[in-house]
Amino acid sequence: MDIKNYITAVGRGLFDSFRGIRTLFTMDKEMNDRMLSRLSPSHATTPIRRRTSDIQDNTPVRALKKHEESKVLSRTIQCCFFNGGTFLFSIILFEYGLLPFINFVLQFIFGKESFMGKIVWSWIEPMLSIIFKTMWVLPLFVLSKIVNCLWFQDIADTAYRYSRGRPQFMQSLSKLLADLIFSIVVQALFLVQAMLVEYIPIFWVGYCLSVIHMSLLYSLYAFEYKWINMGWELHHRLSYIETNWPYFIGFGLPLTIFTQLPESCIISACIFSITFPIFIISANEASPITGICDYPMHLFSPVIKVSNFMLNRTIGSKKPMAGPSKPHVR
User: Fold this and answer.
1) What is the pLDDT of residue 316?
2) Would you give the DSSP letter of residue 87?
3) CB 72 within 8 A of CB 87
4) What sign for the dihedral angle of Cα 263, 269, 270, 273?
């Protein structure tokens, strides 16, 4: 085992996780230029011809704007505005603006050290928090999950077409749906496993194992859009991560750190939704370092077995999914 190769793979993963930042600002222009050239190669010959063509009703430019214009940057800005500007800002405003202001008013009315003021505040503060979370945070959180899924998929599909061309989906729709359902179950159980290992009595062992779990899980989140478009089944995707785990630990580490900084799970989810589009684009542009691991890290095997058991009990007796096997090199 060459430690230098492992460190290099982790460093390459870290570097590749930020590649999407540069690509984000150039992708739309290059994608739209490609589409224009396919619609009319002679369209972009001169600025005069381009302006004249724009005036007409059935020009390639109008067709592009109406149907196929790439909007990755705008989708990413929408994610930032919706999750950060609307959702996260409202939570921060409530926690650090409205509640302290009401507390200040009560102290002004009853006195700073007044026993009555403290009693009133002990009733008002939890009541306002419950109302705010029930009437605003929870509905908006559910809505954000749905909207983010649509926007993430749009960003991922455009990024894939930008770097690799037309997606190659699985041949059977039922097979694709079964793969997606099983993937959701596996990811949910793996998240539970990541939380459980953190309770190992030796603190640093538990913490490091939890960080490794979350880094691999976030890498799976980011690369899964690309791999599904490539036609890879779940066992292939998991096996590829387990076999090349140093690279994927490095790739998912920044997102793990970003989401673990806040204590609130809601704020952590907001930060994830704001930054995740960058990692989707980075995953499409990445070239993982492979073939350096002598020993795969079989962290997904336990949740595969549990998932098979759960689905067999709930859906019926079907052929269980095999554990991750060594993937074919593509």
Assistant:
1) 56
2) I
3) no
4) positive
Cα–Cα distance measured from residue 87 to residue 81, given in angstroms and rounded to the nearest whole number: 9
Q: What is the DSSP string of 25-40?
A: HHHHHHHHHHHHHHH-
Query: Rounded distance, CA 34 to CA 38, Å?
Result: 6
Q: Is residue 40 part of a domain?
A: yes
pLDDT at 330: 41
DSSP 70-85: --HHHHHHHHHIIIII
* Main-chain dihedrals φ then ψ at residue 324, nearest 5 degrees: -55, 130
Q: Tabulate helix, strand, coil % of the chain (nearest 5).
A: 75, 0, 25
3-state secondary structure of 299: coil
Structure tokens at 190: 């793996």
Give me the amino acid identity at 133: K
Segments forming the whole domain that contains residue 282: 3-71+131-314
Single out the residue of 259, 177, 263 nearest to residue 222, CA to CA.
259
Short-list 298, 168, 287, 303, CA closest to 233? 168
28 DSSP 8-state letter: H
Report the alpha-carbon distance of residue 205 to residue 110 in Å, rounded.
50
Residue 83 lies in a domain: no
Which tokens in the block code for residue 163?
């770097």
Q: Residue 241 in contact with residue 216, Cβ under 8 Å?
A: yes
pLDDT at 157 over 90: no
Question: 0.85 cut: is pTM over it?
Answer: no
Provide the 8-state DSSP code for 124: H
Question: Does 106 reside within a domain?
Answer: no
- 298 neighbors 242 (Cβ within 8 angstroms): yes
Distance (Å, rounded) from C-alpha 288 to C-alpha 237?
Answer: 13
Q: What is the CA radius of gyration of the chain?
A: 24
DSSP state of 64: I
Split into its structural domains, the chain has a count of 1
Say what percent of the chain tops pLDDT 70. 83
Q: Which residues contact 169 (CB under 8 A, 6 or more apart)?
A: 176, 228, 229, 231
Looking at the domain assignment, is residue 225 inside a domain?
A: yes
